[in-house]
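Hello Y.,

Per our agreement to keep a running log of every chain we model this quarter, I'm adding this entry. I've kept the format consistent with earlier entries: sequence first, then predicted structure.
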Amino acid sequence: MLSSLSNSVRQYMLVTFNYWNFTITDGALRMLVVLYFHDLGYSTLEIASLFLFYEFFGVVTNLVGGWLGARLGLNKTMNIGLGMQILALVMLAVPITWLTIPWVMMAQALSGIAKDLNKMSAKSSIKSLVPDEQQDALYKWVAILTGSKNALKGAGFFIGGLLLSLVGFKLAVLLMASVLTLVLIGSLIGLERNLGKAKNKPKFSQIFSKSAPINILSAARLFLFGARDVWFVVALPIYLGSAFGWSHLWVGGFLASWTIAYGFVQGIAPRITGKSQGKVPDGHAALLWAGLLTAVTALIAYAVQVGWQPQFVIVAGLMLFGAIFAINSSLHSYLIVSYAKGDGVSLDVGFYYMANAMGRLIGTILSGWVFQMAGLAACLWVSCAFLALTTLISIKLPKLKAIATA
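Predicted structure for the entry above:
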């Protein structure tokens, strides 16, 4: 059956399979680290610090990784990412006395580098596999890859908690490392050697994009993801437990379910944004959906500030926020691949996801600081301000006619 498929489809399936397996271990590892180190008596601030290098090195990796992908080929950067994740998992399978904060931060740094190498390689490779004239197919494939990633990351949260309960921390990370080793062997054998490799070797100075649409979209992406993480990463889990008395199991289960639903909406975003009527989204669509998300976030922030039905507002509001955010994210993921140059695509995609990682880093830091200083409502108002900036920046994104004549 596989032999009857075109080479591009087979390569896409292998890239997606690699990405799926990596994503499950990424979500599971995050949950394992949070729960296990909480059980060891680490404070919330100490646990949060374990993820700072994970986010920081995502910024660096996306910037440099795109250049590496264009020079070496996306097959190599994807396989390097898989190998580094295996190493990060093995680093955590050590005696408990070795699991100091610096050691775990180093392992998390490796995992952060691995994650962004893998993501950049997966999303860039689609541009190499889909002809430029098939923009509707490109949008569909990007949406499926992006949506499935977030759904599986949510599943990884469940798997991490389950493995910790059944086999313990050490065996859990070793099992995940073993599975990824098998995936890496298959990837080394099956991926094309020159996938995504630029015909002309780009210089290191070319890591910064010279394309105006990509720079504008990257700025919008930075504030979009900063707006999500400023209230979702640290503030929301703590608020759910402290204000509503939810157990760790309820908090983790709710956030995992939200992530899975978020990924599902990302996967069907092309239908919601008009692909079924033959429409391909442009900068105008990104502007409208960013504006809608800003308005919804402002309503949630106001309701939380005045204390109107807080539990209903937080739960229902988060679901609505997640659905609209997922469409925004899916639109952006399509637009960056569409705007990117075919030769050396990973340079443009890497620069864009560097902005994404920077937004997450800023959002993570602000989430803890703003919540500690002023509470959840303040985090939501900061999120609203970031989304207003995303909307304003999106005004400059190219419209469809401008793209067609460019």
